Amino acid sequence: MDERWKEDKGTFSKSQLIIGVIAMLVALSLIIPLIIFAVRAYSEACQNIHQAERACRNGTHLLQGQLTQAQEGLLKVETQAHTCNQTVVTLKTSLQKQQAQSQEQQAHIQDLERNIINLNRRLQDIVAELEQLRKEKKASRQVPVFNFASSLVTSSLLRPIVLLILVLGALML
Question: What separation in angstroms does the CA of 151 have from each of 57, 131, 135, 158?
C-alpha cells in the first residue's frame, strides 16, 4: 500500500475526480441558494431600513413643522400678553390720576361747602342785624329825629348782602 501511495501522490484517480466534482457541485448547490437567500434577506432588510429612514424623516419634518407653528403661536400669545400688560399699566396709571383728581375735586367741594355754610351764617347774622336795625328805625320814626349814623350803618350793611348774593350766584354756576 505504501507503494501505491507513493505512485498516486501526484495524480488523482478518476473516481477521486468525480467525487471531488460531485462534492463541489453539492457545495455549490448548497451555497448558491444560501447566497440568494442572503442577498434577498439583505435587500429586504435594506428596503425596510430605507423605508424606516424615510418614515423617520417624514415624521421629523412633520414634527419640525408642528414645532414651528407652536413657536409662532407662542410668539403671538407672548406679544398679546405684552400688549395686555402695557394696557393694564396704562389703565392703572390713568385710574390713579383720576382718583387723585377725584380726591382734589372732593376736597374742593368740601371747601366750597364750608364757604357756603360760613356765608349762610354771615347772611343770617346780617339779616338778623338788618331786622334789628329796621325795628330800631321803626321805633325812631316815631321820634322825628333824623339819625345820620343809622343811615350809614344800613347802607354799609346792604353792600355785603349784595356782594354775598353775587358770590352765591357765581358759586351756583
Answer: 114, 14, 13, 11
pLDDT digits (tens, 9 = 90+) for 19-36: 989 998 898 888 888 888
Nearest CA among 169, 66, 80, 64 for reference residue 123: 169
Q: Mind listing the pLDDT tens digit for each residue in 32-52? A: 888 888 787 777 777 888 888
Q: For residues 90 and 84, give the distance between their C-alpha atoms in angstroms, rounded to a whole number.
A: 10
| Apex 18 CA angle, 12 and 22, nearest 5 | 130
pLDDT at 141: 73
CA dihedral 161, 167, 169, 171 (to 10 degrees): -150
State whether residue 9 is helix, strand or coil. Answer: coil
Confirm if 122 and 164 have CB atoms less than 8 A apart: yes
Q: From residue 66, give the alpha-carbon distance in Å to each of 72, 76, 123.
A: 10, 15, 83
**Euclidean distance between CA atoms 158 and 156, whole angstroms:** 6
Side-chain-side CA neighbours of residue 81 (13 Å): 6
Tell me if the pTM is above 0.85.
Answer: no
Which residues lie closer than 8 Å to 77 by C-beta, 6 or more apart?
Answer: none
Widest CA span of the chain, in angstroms? 197
